[in-house]
Amino acid sequence: MQITSILVSFVSVLWVTAFSTAGCKANPDSCRLWAEPQMPILSMDGDFVIGGIFSVHYYMKSEQNTYTTMPAQPQCAGRQLHLARALEFTIHEINNSTELLPGITLGYQIYDSCSAEPMSVKVAFQFANGLVSVFNDTNACLKSAAATVPAVVGESSSSPSIALARMLGLFGIAEVSHSATCACLSDKNQFPTFFRTVPSDHHQAAALARMVKYYGWTWIGAVRSDTDYGNYGMAAFLKAAQEEGICVEYSEAYYRTQPRIKLERVANVIRRSTARVIVAFITAADMKFLLEELVQQPPPPLQWIASEAWIIHPDIVRFNICAGAVGFGVPRSVIPGLPEFLLDLSPAQALKLPILTEFWERSFSCSLKGRTGSSEFMRECDGSEDIRALQNPYTDTSQLRNTNMVYKATYAIAHAIHSVICNHTQCDKTNKFSQWQILNQLKRVNFTTKNGYQVNFDSNGDPVAVYELINWQFKKDGTLDFVPVGYYDSSKPRGQEFRMSSAIHWLGHQTEVPVSVCSESCPPGTRKAVQKGRPVCCYDCIPCAEGEISNKTDSLDCMHCPPDFWPNANQDSCLPKPVEFLSWDDTLGIILTVFSITGAFMSVCVASIFYKYRASPIVRANNSELSFLLLFSLTLCFLCSLTFIGRPSEWSCMLRHTAFGITFVLCISCVLGKTIVVLMAFRATLPGSNVMKWFGPPQQRLSVLTFTLKQAIICVIWLKVSPPFPFKNLRLYKDKIILECNVGSSIGFWAVLGYIGLLAVLCFVLAFLARKLPDNFNEAKFITFSMLIFCAVWITFIPAYVSSPGKFTVAVEIFAILASSFGLFICIFAPKCFIIVFRPTKNTKKHLMGKVPSKPVVSVLCLCKQA
């Protein structure tokens, strides 16, 4: 890298040589400007002479912008004389100090580069070898006229500083810049002798990007100077902006010497832009040209984000189009004694130096008496001019920003010299030292200036980055002013670098933060979908899919809710899914409960009636023991339906299915027993039949017990192997949970139902066979009809149970239980109760047997009497 630096410097020397030679041939008058010795604008002899180089004038555009044609005279406008004089003041203050360099007198040679790189290179050679000039018109070297300077303060901007640092670096001469901020200068491989007291643009670019992100500006424009300062600074900003998720609509470059058509094109891009925030990494001179072009056709109100080069520049503050501009600038400071030094200037003193003469005459637009040479002003100064009445950057000491950087840089060099030649309180002016010794001591300096500022450099030659956040606000008189509204300190932990001290006036007057986005923020409940072919900041807001949410603004993706949760209406949060089951307070649950209790109550009432009239013929003829057992089982059937209502639990799930299976088998067994009794009674009428003794009361009880016990065994096996359990059904509905009882073993469940169905079919067949009984003893017909209803209900139940959703599945099951129970109850017991209560005349043995009693009826009555 060092070899590369030397080659670049050598090319620069050749370029200056060609530049000067070609310029002399094309324009002999301009040859004197570039080839004659460059004289300092301010100088003083001393034991050690510190160099200084500032852009006191701006080199403006020439008529022919080529490398070989030079203007006869640079078109200059003085702006940085106060910086050069600040170096002069600091040297005098150090010379008067008894602690720093006692007995040593520092001198200075301060040059004006006119913000031109060739001039900086020319001055660098004079600093390096003490020659009056590098080349004359015959390309012959001139003799040494002064000693080599130990260090240089300057340059004022990045591009001249790069040229200066490359030259000085070859000779080990330290350069301490007060305002060259290009991050490229931190590369010690290319610029080993460069130091600065102003922060690197690396920190400024990161701070600007973070500020843009903080205020929610994701769609911005960018303009920069087409120089090292602008290009490197904007590159660092764009990199930081990309990391922060900021999109740049355009990035335009301009330099003041470029053709006007380029300036117009940049201005038109800004006018047509949809971005309402512009980041300008641009020098004050380039910014001035750009704003002058924009005010001719003003664009919509723009929020300017400024770099330190123009945010505090007095020439730009007159453009109201930049009202509300925000940017980072070097902090203000106070330098005791400097204001008095700057204002201690009389016409007699101004006549001593051409630069002061020019300043005086241009400030007051008059020609000083006694001056040598011609003046551009016809009016002669009359002596009433008062420098304290001027309002310009020279006299305005309320904004000592870069001035303090010059002050710190000069003190840093003085401390380095002190470390080399001084031992405790003794300094030896005859001490011979090299520039590399000064360079090494600069790396180690660490002190506090008289005005309280810490000075030290890191390994890259940079200071700690401290900025003031500046906001352009209107004053009462309608003019704009620089108002500090916050601070930035890179030494603070991340997230604590910013400290706001007052409110920002956006666009000059409003307190509401302006909006600059390509697309509005996507609210919670939506996600961003990047528009095809556009930057990532341009997107559409797509609602989250069903079952998904986004709970923050500008979500990239939606996320699924957990299985037990479902999005709310706005799809920005997950809410617990409502749990649905057939509850006691549900309307359907209340209705079914009423019917269940009513059925159980009616069964108890009928049992009471039968018990009261147990001696009556109709009760005795209908097998009172099985009738009471049937009524008991029907009561249990009605009541078991209640176990299906309410929140399912482990016990309720096991109870409801087993209770239902056993009680219904008990019920069907009783009906089956009654049917068999009737059939057996009529079979007993056949000659030689002896069946009645095989189906007496003991056999009836045993048959009921056997049928019921088989169902109980099936239920026990079911409960043992895979019992029913509570189950959250999440698949039936997306937005709610169905809490139901899972049957566990499907084989067990259908075995219970199948056994009930088998008994019901058997009972139906037997009752159908007994339908030819005498009309007055018609119970077999009622059993047939009840079994027909029972079978119809349960055959219909199967498809209804499978297809019913949610809690209605349970309701269908309860309905089947109640319907079949009521069918049995009404068909078997309603006719008998009607006769007992409302037709007591028919409740006689004579009526049951008819006029000619038949033997089957007598057999039934006898069988019932035994029971």
From TrEMBL:
<dbReference type="InterPro" id="IPR004073">
    <property type="entry name" value="GPCR_3_vmron_rcpt_2"/>
</dbReference>
<keyword id="KW-0472">Membrane</keyword>
<dbReference type="InterPro" id="IPR000337">
    <property type="entry name" value="GPCR_3"/>
</dbReference>
<feature type="signal peptide">
    <location>
        <begin position="1"/>
        <end position="26"/>
    </location>
</feature>
<comment type="similarity">
    <text>Belongs to the G-protein coupled receptor 3 family.</text>
</comment>
<dbReference type="InterPro" id="IPR000068">
    <property type="entry name" value="GPCR_3_Ca_sens_rcpt-rel"/>
</dbReference>
<keyword id="KW-0297">G-protein coupled receptor</keyword>
<dbReference type="InterPro" id="IPR038550">
    <property type="entry name" value="GPCR_3_9-Cys_sf"/>
</dbReference>
<dbReference type="GO" id="GO:0005886">
    <property type="term" value="C:plasma membrane"/>
</dbReference>
<feature type="transmembrane region" description="Helical">
    <location>
        <begin position="588"/>
        <end position="613"/>
    </location>
</feature>
<keyword id="KW-0807">Transducer</keyword>
<feature type="transmembrane region" description="Helical">
    <location>
        <begin position="625"/>
        <end position="646"/>
    </location>
</feature>
<feature type="transmembrane region" description="Helical">
    <location>
        <begin position="702"/>
        <end position="721"/>
    </location>
</feature>
<keyword id="KW-1133">Transmembrane helix</keyword>
<dbReference type="Pfam" id="PF07562">
    <property type="entry name" value="NCD3G"/>
</dbReference>
<dbReference type="InterPro" id="IPR017979">
    <property type="entry name" value="GPCR_3_CS"/>
</dbReference>
<keyword id="KW-1003">Cell membrane</keyword>
<dbReference type="Pfam" id="PF00003">
    <property type="entry name" value="7tm_3"/>
</dbReference>
<dbReference type="InterPro" id="IPR028082">
    <property type="entry name" value="Peripla_BP_I"/>
</dbReference>
<dbReference type="InterPro" id="IPR011500">
    <property type="entry name" value="GPCR_3_9-Cys_dom"/>
</dbReference>
<keyword id="KW-0812">Transmembrane</keyword>
<dbReference type="Pfam" id="PF01094">
    <property type="entry name" value="ANF_receptor"/>
</dbReference>
<keyword id="KW-0325">Glycoprotein</keyword>
<feature type="transmembrane region" description="Helical">
    <location>
        <begin position="747"/>
        <end position="770"/>
    </location>
</feature>
<feature type="transmembrane region" description="Helical">
    <location>
        <begin position="814"/>
        <end position="838"/>
    </location>
</feature>
<dbReference type="InterPro" id="IPR017978">
    <property type="entry name" value="GPCR_3_C"/>
</dbReference>
<feature type="domain" description="G-protein coupled receptors family 3 profile">
    <location>
        <begin position="588"/>
        <end position="852"/>
    </location>
</feature>
<feature type="transmembrane region" description="Helical">
    <location>
        <begin position="658"/>
        <end position="682"/>
    </location>
</feature>
<protein>
    <recommendedName>
        <fullName>G-protein coupled receptors family 3 profile domain-containing protein</fullName>
    </recommendedName>
</protein>
<keyword id="KW-0732">Signal</keyword>
<dbReference type="GO" id="GO:0004930">
    <property type="term" value="F:G protein-coupled receptor activity"/>
</dbReference>
<dbReference type="InterPro" id="IPR001828">
    <property type="entry name" value="ANF_lig-bd_rcpt"/>
</dbReference>
<feature type="transmembrane region" description="Helical">
    <location>
        <begin position="782"/>
        <end position="802"/>
    </location>
</feature>
<keyword id="KW-0675">Receptor</keyword>
